[in-house]
Amino acid sequence: MAEVAIARLSDIAQRAGVSKTAVSKVLNDRPIRIGAAKREEILKLARDLRYRPNIMARSLNRRSTRTVGVVVYDMSTLFYPQLLRTLELALACEGYQTLICNTEDNPAREREQIDNLLGRLVDGLVVAPACGVGNIEYFRGIHDQGTPFILIDRYFPDEPFRFLVTDNQAAARNGAAWLLDCGVRKLTYLGERGRNPSVDERLAGVRAAAERRGLVLKDQDIVLCDTNRISIRKALQPRLAQARPGTGLFLESNRMLMGVLDTCRDIGKTVPADVRIVGFDPFGPDLARPADFASLRALTEPAPTIQQDTGRLAALATAYLLASFKGESPDAAAWQRRLPAKLVVPEDNKGVAPA
Question: Which residue, of 35, 144, 256, 317, has the greatest Cβ tally within 10 A?
Fold first, then answer.
C-alpha cells in the first residue's frame, strides 16, 4: 500500500502562490488582508491535500495542549466507565481532549502514568489515586509546581489537594439502614483488604446504621479480602454456609459481587431469599462467560445499589480545571467536596416488608 504524503504549509503555499505565513493565518482564521477568492482557494487546497495542523507546534505557541490527563485505578465496575464518558464529553464541549490511564491500583504505575502525561504537557489532571499513602509526597510535588489537578473518588486527609468524593459515610449508612429495615439482624461487611479514607468512611456508615438499631458490628462481622473471586469465596463460605433468614451483606464495592454470587451458588443459597445484599456502584457481569452466567442464578431479584453521581462529579471536576486554566486560584476549602449518592431500590424490592 502506497504511503500517503503528509501535506505541509509550504505545499499549500506553493500551489496557492502565497507565503506560508498567509496560509497559516487563513487556516487559523487570523486577520490578514487577502481576497475572498484566494482565501477559499487556500481552504480548498488544505482540504484536498488533507492537511493536518502540527498540534504540538501549535500547543507550544499557545502554551496549552488543550488536553487533560485522567488517571483512575479500576475499570471493573460501571462507575468509572460512566464517569469517564461524562467527563470526556464535558471537557470536549470546552475544547479539551482527554488522555485516560488505568493504574490497576498500583502506586508505582500511577507515578509512571502521571509522569508520562506531564511529559505530554497536559494542561491539568483528574486523578482517582491508587490505594495507600505512598504517593502523597509525589502529589505534593505536583501541587507545589502549580500543575492544576483535582482528586476524585479518593482523597488524602489533611492535605491541601482539591478533591471531589461521594459522602461515603452517609451513603453507606442509608444502604445498611435499608437492609436492617428489611429485617436483617445478622449483618456482615465485605470490603477490600487495601484501605483508604473513602472506604473507611463506608465502614463507619454501616457501623452507625447498626448502632442506631441497637446492633453492634463486631470484628468478626467485618470481612476484608482481596477482590478476586477465589479470595471472596474462601472468606465468605464459612459465614454464608450458616446463613439463616435475616442475614445481610453490605458490599463495599459491587466489583466483589460475582465472588459473592459464586459463594451462594456453591452452597445452595440465593439472593435475597437467604442473603440480602446492598453494594456500591452498578456492575455488569460477562454473560458470555459460563462462570458468570451460572453464578447469576443465585440472584433471583435485582439487588439495591448505591449509585454515585457521576454527572455531578464530572461537571465539578471540569469547572475546577477550567477555572484553574484561566489563572484563577479556587479556594481549597470550597473544592474539598462530598456529594450525596442515591440508593436505587428496584421495583421488585420496594414492597418488601421487614421479616
Answer: 256
